[in-house]
Amino acid sequence: MERKSKNYEEVPIEKLRWKCNLSSLKIKTTDDLKPSKNILGQERALKAIKLGLEMEYLGYNLFVTGKAGTGRSTTIKMLLEGRKREGIEFDDKCYVNNFKNPDMPRAINLPAGQGKIFKKDMESLISSLRKKIPLIFESKRYQANKKSVIGDLKNKQKEMVKKFEKRVNKENFTLVQIQMGIYTKPEILPIITGKPINLDKLESMVESKQFPEKDFKTIQKKYNELSSQLSEISKEISNLEKDLCQKLSSLDYKMVSPMVEELISELKEKYKNKKINLYLDEIKESILNNIEKFQGKKEKEAPAIPGLVIRPPKNNFKEYEVNVLVDNSETKNSPVIIETIPSYKNLFGTIERNLDKYGHWITDFTRIKAGSLLRANGGFLVLNALDTLIEPGVWPALKRTLLNRKIITQTYDPFYMFTTSALKPEPIECDTKVIMIGDPFLYYLLYSHDEDFKKIFKVRADFDSVTQKDNNSIYQYACFIQNICQREKLRPFDKSGLAVAIEYAVRLAGKQNKLSTQFNNLVDVLREANYWAKKDNNSVVTEKCVDKAITEKIERLRLIEEKIQEMIEEGTIMIDCKGMVNGQVNGLSLYDLGEYSFGKPTRITAKTSMGRAGIINIEREADLSGKTHNKGVLILSGYLRAKYAQNKPLTVSASICFEQSYTGVEGDSASSTEVYALLSSLADLPLRQDIAVTGSINQKGEIQPIGGVNQKIEGFYEVCKAKGFTGTQGVIIPSLNISDLMLRKDVVEAIKEGKFHIYPVETIDQGIEILTGVKAGKIKADGTFEEDTVNYLVDKKLAEFANKLKEFSIEMK
Predict the structure, then answer these.
(1) What is residue 37's predicted lDDT score, i.e. its pLDDT?
(2) What is the pTM of this model?
(3) Domains of the chain, CATH where assigned
């Protein structure tokens, strides 16, 4: 069959790469531009953020999504700076002792700045009492009253003892004090021959006939009577001592209470707060019930464990202290906290502990510490979503706090049996607006599987990775680059350097009519271009410096690409760049390494025969095919049936293989390539090996756009360059990908010189004509195809397969 040479349509040179023209900017360098801090290309996200920040209803917290580097964190910081929430009054958060239930400290809210004043007032109150109460006890009035009370008691005691001694002496007994260890005990002894004698000794004398038994019994009877009287007198004296204690306590209360009540009343009048009044009443009661604490210092006790060194407490008046958790005395705008380590302790606070003299861990309300959520009350708390979710216990506690708008400070205790604190502080009202920054996957995962998530994060701000390219956005981009230069202290960029930087942003966006908003990649190139300008002793950053930065960045990352290229050049990976082969075509694969992606050709082959197996995807049979690739193979099967099996069964067994592919294959961008290989095998027409192909197919035979078109073209270009240009080499791409082209300058130059070609196609028929040099052939009214065309030969071969299979089936019967 005669092959016709034909000049097929190629992509116009001007569409291969968009060139940035800054002639309208009357500048020499970026120093002539006004730096812009505007947020580029995120109008949708900004509207959502504004709504979320201004809505003061339950659940209107923000979840910010988008790709890394799109400026999510920078935007949030910028919008929160100097912001004040409407209708929010800042207050101080305090904890004080609960004298009735010390394990449940009371929470007190005070207007901003009054927390530390109240703390100082309480310190002054206790300090004043510690000074004044001892002075009261040292006063002449108190001492006189005390002496009078004690004197009355002593007189009563002396009178009682004196009367009893007379009675004892009258009965010929005497009252003595007997030492028993460190104590003395009063004892009654009989007088025998002018000397007191112990009753036990007297009994021994009776047994030895030295003392009359009758007299002993008389003495013993009197002894019992007197001992009983002594016991009664001891009880009366004990009661007198108790009465003395009560009278002294009453005296202390009477002398101290007026001063305490006066000081407490002053504080009540100053603050006029219901909770503070209740607390001060408890303070007054505690002070008056523990006046002895204010009378003087106690001696230090030795540690219970020998050798254990324990720091002595600063004072014994902790129960009267005020623990100011949040002090907003200097807060003017809404507090903004960016929590980079969202652990349970950092977010919700904790209750610290210390070791007492017995080796026990103890704590109290003064050791309650606030976390970021409470410190950001009335303001904003910014969290990283992934960091927050992986921290133990944080997510459930955060949900409870946002749903109830109350925070309970507790030590995180996953193993409750080992808990060290029984404190349960009173919950504190918390109105903090939380802003979480994460990726879309996390957002959808939480939205689908956590019922509470949609109640507490009602606003999503989604950052786009690209923005529309027009004259205004280009100007804003240039001003943004100037802002980066000032912020990073970079050399100014001249017009050529600025233009190449903007072109790089278009390349990152993947479309000629878009600019990338993943600024982290762009900023890295700007910094590195400045580095190369410095190396060249240039005062400005030029086109050469930016190109150098991009080239060097790629060079650092393209080790794997080089290894594959070496294997292609050595022939280890078999790729033909010239000639024609039956059932074989060069497909284009995209290797995505995350931070870097590149394209390389892959040999795709097809073999066909009579049979009923249909299209056999060898990659799938070997478990090397992804779902999308499997779908592509099924689609091309549908295309073949629709086109060639309308008047006969499709009785063919065809195998398709990615040669020398030992890892997974994913995506449908090679489905058109696989069709070309099948058609070549069926029509027995060889395909050009100097042309590589990419593009997916639908069941109508239309070529659909694919991703990574620039990298794929450049990958085959590098192979052709290494093996030598023939002037006929090129790539077939979908027509719909023309707007995505942003090829390297050297590739564009080679195309200009006619060394390389880019052919856009819309259908399979267009592509097969380029690859075979034979007309595809249209279907006629009778259902057959034009003779001596590709489709005619394919249809003819399929008809032969159908007839032969029918004949074979009859013979087998």
Answers:
(1) 83
(2) 0.82
(3) 21-38+465-557 (1.10.8.60), 42-90+332-463 (3.40.50.300), 92-298+312-330 (no CATH), 562-812 (3.30.230.10)
